[in-house]
Amino acid sequence: MPAIPTSVEGHDLSKLLKIAEKTVKAKTDNSQILDLSLEERIPKFESSELTLGTVLGRGGFCVVNEIVAIKLKDVSQSASNAEKVADDDINHIVQDRSFMQANCLRGKGKDCRYAIKKLQDTSFNDASTFINGVVDLAVEARFLAVIRHPNIIKMRATCLGKPFSPEYFVVLDRLYDIMGQRITKWKKKQPKGLGRMMDRKGKKELAFWLERVTVAYDLGCAIKYLHDSNIIYRDIKPDNIGFDVRDDVKLFDLGLVKEIDPNARDIDGNFKLTGDTGSPRYMAPEIALHKPYNENVDVYSFCILMWQMFKMETPFEGYNMGMFQKKVVAGGARPAPDSKWPPEINNMLRRGWGDAKQRPSMEGVCEVLRNEISQNSDEEINEILDASRKSEMSLHRGF
């Protein structure tokens, strides 16, 4: 690992870290779900105990590498950490560390089970970027310590030390496909030409449709879980969605999540929150316009994403920022639903990216998706879906 600089743009690193710590404190002090005791039970590692492999991805602030080996220096945690944790929890932490060392590679050692997320080198080039990176990673770690959902990435461990240090990292389950990659795969395998002619009963085409609807449903349930916990995600986009080795879809990168106080809603049911947060292509207009908003901004983003998953095309492709602001944010332009899709799906999409006051809740969105799956599934369809899933799993494992 390269040496950590002592300053960023002439600013003392310790002072920047104190600013980051104050920022995180302000963001999390009034939380109703964060739990320090749960955070302390998370296994801790020194960076020297982890051997890093291939870079899996880079974001605005962080880089993610696979972990190819874990070599424990001392299975007991440091004294300063142990003082904060009950004896039973220390035993569990030691066992978890040992398990992770023994099971770092899955199966016959062909693929890695874990990945590490830490600040990337470019985050040290700019003071503001550095602070934002430290804040995002620290906030994400605190929320991941308490969030439990099968379709939200699981944090397995963190750095042995305070989150307000330039060396801080989190250890996550390794993902194999990002949603953008999966959409490209879907587009290549969609039934067409001779394949469609041979599919006389339309079973393969229907299974292909339900495969994408099922992924959307699982994602929707993860977002609903966050909303039920009074959390707005605020950054739904393909780059923040992946698939694990079992081909389960996972929502990750919780750096922009915001816990809300239900009692702080205004007369319209909104909150006064930071504007211009997230990715423009998927951002609800009220965020782009710096207006008050609520959890239904995630519904907007999710509906834009679902259109992309179903159509296998990029929404608003070819728009520059000026066109986007004029046509989409101000003018209300939206993607065109496909007439071949079920009316219930198209109606849900139109409502979801329509007027903020008329949007369905995530529960309503999930209900539409669940009904679409249950009404069209049968034994033959399920067999086709299982075969497709096993094929993806074998690709992940390199068989």
TrEMBL record:
InterPro entries: Kinase-like_dom_sf, Prot_kinase_dom, Ser_Thr_protein_kinase. The active site is at 235 (proton acceptor). The keyword Metal-binding applies. It holds the Pfam family Pkinase. Keywords: Magnesium, Metal-binding. Mg(2+) binds at residues 240, 253. One of its GO terms (molecular function) is ATP binding. This is Protein kinase domain-containing protein.
